[in-house]
Amino acid sequence: RKIDLNSSLLQHVIERKHEVLCILREKIITTQKCTISEHIQAEEKISGVMGCGTKIVKVSVSENGSMMKDSSVILEIPPATTIAYSVIELFIKHSGQF
């Protein structure tokens, strides 16, 4: 099988190097509002320069040089939303074969 390399969808994916084309195998459709949350807590030793990411909510530093980072991410998904559950990345050769 071959795919048309001149299609606008494929050209869009080719232009953006970090995007991929996938085949959807399984999906979930929400029937009511859902909340997905992630809570990460990490402890690191401080020595020298300290860097913080954008998701950091709370940072506390103790006297012995250890640092506690606390971050949370909460997503609300509305009803009737389709979520890709299982996908296969589609690899396309220069000839258009996949």
Automatic annotation (TrEMBL):
Q: GO CC annotations?
A: cytoplasm; endomembrane system
Q: Where is the Gasdermin pore forming domain?
A: 2-98
Cross-referenced Pfam families: Gasdermin (PF04598)
Record keyword Membrane present: yes
Q: Which GO terms describe its biological process?
A: programmed cell death
* Compartments, record wording: Endomembrane system
Keyword vocabulary terms for this entry: Membrane
> InterPro entries of this UniProt entry?
Gasdermin_pore (IPR040460), GSDME (IPR042377)
Q: Which family does it belong to?
A: Belongs to the gasdermin family.
Q: What is this protein called?
A: GSDME protein
What species is this protein from? Ceyx cyanopectus
Question: Which gene is the coding source of this polypeptide chain?
Answer: Gsdme
